[in-house]
Specification:
Layout lengths: L1 H31 L1 E6 L9 H8 L2 H4 L2 E6 L6 H6 L5 E4 L1 H9 L4 E6 L6 E6 L14 E4 L6 H9 L16 E4 L14 E5 L3 H7 L7 E5 L11 E5 H5 L10 H21 L1 H9 L15 H16 L14 H13 L14 H8 L6
Parallel strand pairs: 1-2, 1-3, 6-7, 6-8
Antiparallel strand pairs: 3-10, 4-10, 5-8, 5-9
Helix pairs in contact: 2-9, 2-10, 9-10, 9-13, 10-11
Length: 365
Amino acid sequence: MKNSARITARLTTLVAAALLVSNTTSSAQTQKLVPVKLQLKWFPQAQFAGFFVAQQKGYYKAEGLDVTLLPIGDQSPIQTVATGAADFGTTWITDLLTARQQGIGVVHIAQLFQKSGYTLVALKSSGLAKPEDFKGKRVGVWPSGNEYPAVALLKKYGLTTSLDSTVSNPSVQAVTYPFDPSIVFPDKVDLVSAMTYNELDQIMGLGYSMDKLSVFRASDYGINLLEDLMFTSQKVLDDKNFRGSGMSGRDVAARLVRASLKGWNYAVKNQPEAVQTVLLQCGNTCKGSGTRANAAGHQTWQMTEVSKLYSAGPTLKNMAGYLDPVTYKANVTLLKSLGILKADPAAGAVDYSVWEAATGKKAMK
């Protein structure tokens, strides 16, 4: 009995020691997670499903990162990253390249959406059938660098806008509005900016079914300006000891991209589950408009549409997150021809080495 008691006591001591080591190790691992702030381009919604899935599934933690996803609304993520309020961000390529032109040291590190989802929407009863018909019309555009696709489309067809202060008698009146189409459409504008995955569904919720709408997809007119991408600052990439973690900023960037792509790949393949993950993150911005003001319904629509933008181009060749050099060059050429860019961006505007480190694949520059 005494031996049995000793054995029991010994086992109890060993178990307690093992638990202490386990808890200490777990605590140490938690302490080692590197805090990272990722600035999203808008409020939480399925547009960012891959990031929320990566967070929920523990993909970031598996890479040693403690990622905070920051909403922003109608401001540009460029400023929060450039000022250091965030370490990484998502934005559109025109926004990034025009920022580079202004001397802001931001760097493209991964391309998520491989196809533009930007459209201009009009009532079919307006009789507008092609971009040339937009002359003399009012066009609803968004602020903070989000107006560039509309400007590019209009300029391609020889139309000037009131956004250009050097033009005294513009052929199109631009009406800037804060993203909710119900504020301006159809009473205050003839055409309104709408992403396929968001505002288009909201417009239908206002009582205008697709058969009542004329949808002008920018990509159909050669304006395929790439949208959601991941970027950071050159300062972060050059940091040899990111937040005192012992990791370089470049290593942190690669880990973030790797986990994010894993999250996106999972979200696209498991859309209903991804929608549920998104719904846990968002509030009223998850809802559509009017008759379609249902969070689950609107986010399901959005998840379906963003998956189309993600699952295109390089993604179909097992190269998700890759910025196709041909598409990039075409974007630059278009922006230069329209006067939005004055010259080719410096080579440092895009850093393929982060994507290569994240994926183990070779960029074809």
